[in-house]
């Protein structure tokens, strides 16, 4: 039950068109959920700028296209993640304006006007093999409207490489640190800065990395407080968390 | 090597008091680390208001007291976590002004003036047995200078209990959601709001909860993006992450 | 040794055709198992309506067809699960009346009369990617003779979506809640209703979901009592458990 | 917002005492949750007969007593689980009518009239060391109002021992099968009967049983469909699930 | 239903005292289980010499004594394992003839005549800390009637120590190899002899031995075929398996 | 250093052809290992009848053929396990007399005379999907010279099916029980007989069977003592263990 | 900032070309990292002889070639590991002098003069299936400039086979012991020699080896001290560790 | 059979006192192992300076004392690890010259002359709670005769703290890096130096560190090659490995 319907109902009560009892029943059994939905949709509308997102992994190209078409009808901006080249080709045959980044496996459509960038996020990686996950995070963050500073290949195999970037990092509000193998980068970065660090373990590695478990556990056990961890390879989730942090921070200013 | 020393060194080079070669050697071998330290301490000084912290678990009361005494010499504010009642009694016999919360196992000393509260954090728990961890988070956040809204016992065993608090939640910048057992609360909350959610799994439960692993995995797999997870029972770490988020957000305003 | 044979044996004892000693030996060593079998088959016959089931995963299309043909000789109703499209095509080339649902990977043949539906089961899913498992459960339950209410995509990423269905749920005797990722749906549902909840974790997700382990552990640790868990992706098993619950409940009425 | 308040609000709209806009705001922001609560409490009231339950593990005797006293004010029947002898003594010093079973670690108070038993549940154990968990289940089921048939020590170390009980089992509507070590009993029982089986793994055993994990996995992998598994040592949860199955079955009869 | 009862029943059928129908019902529903039991007890009687066994871990001294007293009424030989010194003292106060080995935590009573030893078993350990488990195996094997050769402290930290014992080993029919830590002994021994090897992992070690898991996995992955593994610390189980191997081997000779 | 060489050396010492010092050095540094080898090969020769074995998994057809050809030069009997159909075709193109069993993935060549069968082994399976592993065990046992009784599809989903086979089982010296999923068969069989049971977990199943881990743990935790467990899917290893048991048992008779 | 640049800066300060303040800023913010880099590169230059290394797993042949070309511009020696045959063919089409070992999946280019070998390393394997990992270690060690003694197929399935090699082993400075399955070889070797042992678990095996976990745990739990373990299948890492041990040992001589 | 006995035997053959056949038998069956032992003991004697070691964990004070007394009879130097204060007191009451370090839980007796230190080892820790394990390593290394440089509390929570020590580290031959929690220190150090790094994970931490597993996995997955890992908390093993590296390095110089 959206706002308009609720107004109608109440107006009808006021006008004596429906009885109090009937209205009560309507409000109590069936529509309370709609009210919730309205309330929550109201919340959602605050999130303006957050595009609808499709997770394409496990969907056929055709299924992905179908969802994309549906969303593109009602939204200015549509973001698809884990998009294979095959799926991207199919969607772009219908939506030639959609942008596709093969490394990040991200495809997005943004028909809206150019918005000013809000907030600044640094995305760091330990090694070059963490790039796909980092780019998923970086591109998502950019689509969501933030400026992104990419600081790649600064892992602990040569930790001195991070130092020249400390000043750049200092200008960001959130850091996303992406690392596989021993997953030490987020903890190191958290120890060198006073920024909130979102840690993304990747499945990069082999053997006793157990598909990213080693990096995940390392990040959860970071001896520097100030690190929040997302799922293995979840660059998208990290970007959304960064977006929400920035969104609420700027909201606070008003 | 702090700023003053570096200036002196360079002035001496300028003044011809030490040779370029000597200065080069000084800068290259020994002091570069000090420069880093200076740089980093400069960063640290920005964190003003962040008290020194003692993790008392695994320390004897005497060891804890010794560290506390050392820190109290140089700091207005000292925070100790995982403080047993026995340790608390010993420290308070020396520092009668120190406050101790038995449930949170937190003891802190704040000899400074009353600072205005910065930022607003909601701390939510799934059940009453998550309280010790939640209070560790809440008290830490308060000592760090934020306002805390406590919303306890709103777990998914009766998820409707969360709804009356949605408006309160809406006024916060960060949420800390604490839950043991199936660990579903952070994901549910992330689905209902547009706030960044810091998820704290607790070891509450038995059997196949495997000491908090079940809750940890659930939180990492949250289907709502926007959730960052800290270690099991790590209320302190969650509060520091929330503090850094708020700190950088207000910093951004200036 | 079926009933008829046992009667014959005893009649022969009565008629003096075989000695007590011989009968004793027959009953004691060899046939006692047959008696068990008879007894148990007697139990089985009570289960009338339960079709024979073939688990096709790991079988070649030819092997599956062979078993299907064998069962179809002696049974009105045959149910095959985890049926690939290739296997389905082969079987349907021989049994054109067999129905195949590709999403559920279920194929069944029901040559019997239309039986009235017994009992009402709600099948809920957290997300759209849980549908194959949910449909395996739903179709199995329908083949077993129950009415099924499908309530899909009501997971905790937007938990308010469950509320409009609470009245529908209220009319069912058993709920089957299917969820991957953090696996929170069954616990949430168990907290909102007074129905027995059969929880089915799915392998939906990636990274630290560890093939469904995260959802499985979450469900086992549900803080709402009243949840029974089956194996990961085991929609069939959930439907059989629901069937047995309903079967024994209606049996109780007589 | 309970029914009366909702009526008042609507009556006021009708009477023109408050405007449609005000009513809309009231309904939309604050009270929708109360409506939910009312709705859900309505559900809860259906659960009449389900006593309030206290999980005493991890609570001090004094804390347990306090909760018990609070609940006993408003409820005819109070059930406490995982009650140590020390806690039991303290509570019984205040509530001499409370019954305590040391083996099951259950204490309950039932000041109401004698209700007729509803439904029949068999509780089976593999070995004698599974008794505490089995008794937690059995006593909970009895307090919840069902008749319980105890069939103990019939595990697979001598599986022939189960056969004499098959006829007793046949008269029950639900089976609760409790087993540690290899956890085979529930699957064996499910293969011999047509009853729904609630499987309770216990932490009984040592070494590679990993605190009940071996039994848990075995039960989840039961080759007989029709088995729902609860958490390790969770006799209480099994009894509640059985209770809900029976409750909905008898409800269905009306 | 034992043999005598079955004879009576059949005789009554023969004599016309009961009808075929009645006999059929008796045989089909109630007594088939007794027949099984009889059959199986017949099997059990073959196991003459196998004493009744009590697993005392998790039992109070009083509970252990009660079981011991019950078994001692009907058996010449009673064996108790995992017996604490306290429990041993209590039982021996009632059974002064019972023998107790503190290291093996075994207590046994053997009032029968001296039987000749049957079969020869070598019990080997990797280190001295594996002794308690090895002695549980060795003593059990001796109580069960076999000769035991103890070859201790011959683990792979100095694998050459095993060589002088190869001739002794050659005279045994079964080897029990007990090892913690890396658990390599059973595989090494299996590579040097042509004896069946029963491997017993122990929980000896720390850190990444994970309570015996490391040794268990090593033994299961032995590159020498011919190794059967029992549970961690299960010296008793290894001895029973060795006993059954020898028992069936000598049985074969007759 | 084989026997002949050792004799020569000693004879040379006796004859004064080489000095005591030289002989000492020869014996001490270089040849001691050869002595071991001789000793051990002497042991090996006792194993007459044990063919050389090739584990083909992970080898290309060409590599497998090469090893097979090498072994076939010096051995009457060659056994290859985990042989793909492609590898089998290649080998049989060179060795037309080699027998291949596709289900067991076993290929063997036996050019020797027909030996009399020694010992009797029962191979049992829980379900039909355990057949490949069971056949690997059964065929290996037959190639090694034992009589094998196959008792398939008697798992705990219908445990009464085992009873008719108890008399057959009684005539065997060793049982090999093969089961996936909950892995309960070996424990059940061990409880019904007095035979040594070799348990083979299989990777049959899905979800929380974790590739056979569930069955493996169940078997290790068998509450019936007398069960020795081999690696997951290791039918070959079980057969070799059975062979060694029988070999040493018959050896004992002489 | 390398040495030359630092000298320039300081000279400019001395010459009054830039102010102290400017120099301070330059040294403090931007260049301190360069100083570190210089320092560390200075360290790196000590490592002369250590070629640049490319880990090709997860890279396309084209990506691998691109990195190879880049490195070959500036380095005499380039080493690529985990190189598929396809990648090797592509690179060798451009670099015909590059050597490729298919078993070790290593490709290297060494345009420099022939250096004398430094240090002696023994590489041992338990079985033939460990060869690829062993050859990765052996070839890497040879490319890094050491002499390698290959001692293959001396695992614990026939541990006597190691003895003839003890004298060869005695002449090496470091041992690399490669083993899958039960992973016992490194511990056995450590018990027989006084050499540092680098243990490399391999993923060789199946079932409960869990991709090399069994061997890894066994090696970590070696009862012989003196064993350092690297990641599963990490032959390259073992060789680098051996190289560093030897490098620092010879450095010590100067 | 030691050298003298072997000489006697051969002399007797030469002198015709025993026949070649007898000598052959003696050499072949019994004594070959003694020859091995001699050979190996010869190896052991090379290890001069390596004291006998007692692992006291799991031993009673009395048992520890007994072993200590036995070893002290025949050795100049005895080292005991994991020594509780109670055990230390008991041993020191008999050996007043024994030194005890409570933090390292190490007790040693060194009655020999002062040997010159051989080799230089740096022991680094991430945090102060890693000290007990680090001191176990450091003291063991000192007792074994090396110089130890302690560099404590330089973990990645403030990684810049390591830089001032790089020159000290440069003078060592081996590094032992001790860390709990995320276990990142060894990888960071390996990236900054060209020294072999022995990584020691500690059980320091809580929650998802799983008793040191997180640190262990991180170290095994170090992206810097050149790291060898020992068991969790195994400071002693790390020191022995370092000792063997140094011992073989200096041996190489001669």
Which keywords apply here?
homooctamer; 254 residues; alpha/beta; 10 helices; globular
Summarize it.
Chain A has helices at 3-14, 20-28, 32-46, 61-74, 85-94, 131-143, 166-170, 185-192, 213-220, 235-253, and strands spanning 52-55, 77-81, 99-101, 106-110, 120-125, 147-151, 174-179, 197-201, 227-229. Chain A has 254 residues and is of the alpha/beta class.
Topology summary:
8 copies of one chain form a homooctamer.
Chain A: H1 3-14, H2 20-28, H3 32-46, E1 52-55, H4 61-74, E2 77-81, H5 85-94, E3 99-101, E4 106-110, E5 120-125, H6 131-143, E6 147-151, H7 166-170, E7 174-179, H8 185-192, E8 197-201, H9 213-220, E9 227-229, H10 235-253
Parallel strand pairs in A: 1-2, 5-6, 5-7, 7-8, 8-9
Antiparallel strand pairs in A: 2-4, 3-4
Helix pairs in contact in A: 4-5, 6-10
What does this structure look like?
- 8 copies of one chain form a homooctamer.
- By secondary structure, chain A is an alpha/beta fold.
- In chain A, 44% of the residues lie in helices and 17% in strands.
- The first copy, chain A, has 10 helices and 9 strands.
- The first copy, chain A, has helices at 3-14, 20-28, 32-46, 61-74, 85-94, 131-143, 166-170, 185-192, 213-220, 235-253; strands at 52-55, 77-81, 99-101, 106-110, 120-125, 147-151, 174-179, 197-201, 227-229.
- In chain A, the strands form 2 sheets. Chain A has a 5-stranded parallel β-sheet with strand order 6-5-7-8-9, with helices on both faces. A 4-stranded mixed β-sheet of chain A has the order 1-2-4-3, sandwiched between helices.
- In chain A, α4 (61-74) packs across α5 (85-94) and α6 (131-143) runs parallel beside α10.
- The longest helix of chain A has 19 residues, at 235-253.
- Chain A is globular, with a radius of gyration of 22 Å.
- Chain A starts with a helix and ends with a helix.
- Chains E and F meet through α3, β9 and α10 of E and α3, β9 and α10 of F.
